[in-house]
Amino acid sequence: MLAIYKKELKSYFTSMTGYVFIAFFLVIIGIYYVIYNMIQLYANFEYVLSGVSFIFILLVPILTMRLMAEEKKQKTDQLLFTSPLPVGKIIAGKFFAVLTVFLIVMGIVCLYPLILLQFGSLSLKVAYGSILGFSLLGAAYIAIGLFISALTESQVVAAVVSFVVILITALMDSLVNLLPKDNKSAWIIFSIILVIICWIAYIMMHNLTVSLSVGIVAEIALTVIYLLKPTLFDGLVSKVFNWFSVIARFDNYTKGVLDLSSAVYFISIVFLFQFLTVQAIKKRRWS
Predict the structure, then answer these.
(1) Is the domain of 124 the same as that of 206?
(2) Both 67 and 142 in a single domain?
(3) For residues 14-27, average pLDDT
(4) How many CB atoms lie within 10 A of CB 273?
(5) N or C, which end of the chain has less CB nearby within 10 Å?
(6) Is the distance from CB of 148 to CB of 64 less than 8 angstroms?
(7) How far is it, in rounded angstroms, from Cα 41 to Cα 73?
(8) Are 242 and 29 in contact (CB under 8 A)?
(9) Where does a domain end: 193, 215, 234?
(10) CA 171 to CA 160: how far, in whole Å?
(11) DSSP-assigned states of every residue in 51-101
(12) Which GO MF terms are attached to this record (predicted)?
């Protein structure tokens, strides 16, 4: 894993990708830092990170699009597949290399509250809590981007899909308010989600029988629950989508709440999408 990690990390700094990512990230954060803390005189560094959370939509796809897509396009993934190194360690090495590039930025950002402290007082607990939440959010998005990169050999497709997925998660709170709240609409929405999940499972496994069987069983169970107690579905769409909202969980940190459940949630996303990436690679390895 260490060899993969060193190779990937080196590749970011032998090309312009790593430097551009770090520079652009720091420029955007610096602009918000000057506006909020220096011009408007807010003694709240968390406002800066809350304002720049949109930056993941633009930068994470660029950072992760080449991780697996480039390997597949150049056929160098065959060397990885035939190596004695387990796929899980290969994926972990790639993930930690990208995470290191991101954490370099966050290490520099850790200096900002200390600079601000020279001009007045601020809550370091809230400031560094928000930095922790921002770092966890970034790690979760990187894991998602890595998984998407493993599904295609086109870097452009990987970047576009990652952009759309991260954009949806960023806008999820607003999108939830547009969804209907009645139980029948909730049943329809969850049925559509089941179809999408089964379709993704089929793409990953190429096993129509398993995907279709799981989908049918899940749909029957969902329908039975709806028929027996439809009131359970009242407002359920909003509750479920709000629970999955990564931005809402990050907002807890900007409010000074060191939410352990949110930290576990972000870490779970990292492990889940690394697991899915490994499964996607294994399917390709044996096909």
Answers:
(1) no
(2) yes
(3) 87
(4) 22
(5) C
(6) yes
(7) 50
(8) no
(9) 234
(10) 16
(11) HTTTHHHHHHHHHHTTTTHHHHHTTTHHHHHTSSS-HHHHHHHHHHHHHHH
(12) ABC-type transporter activity
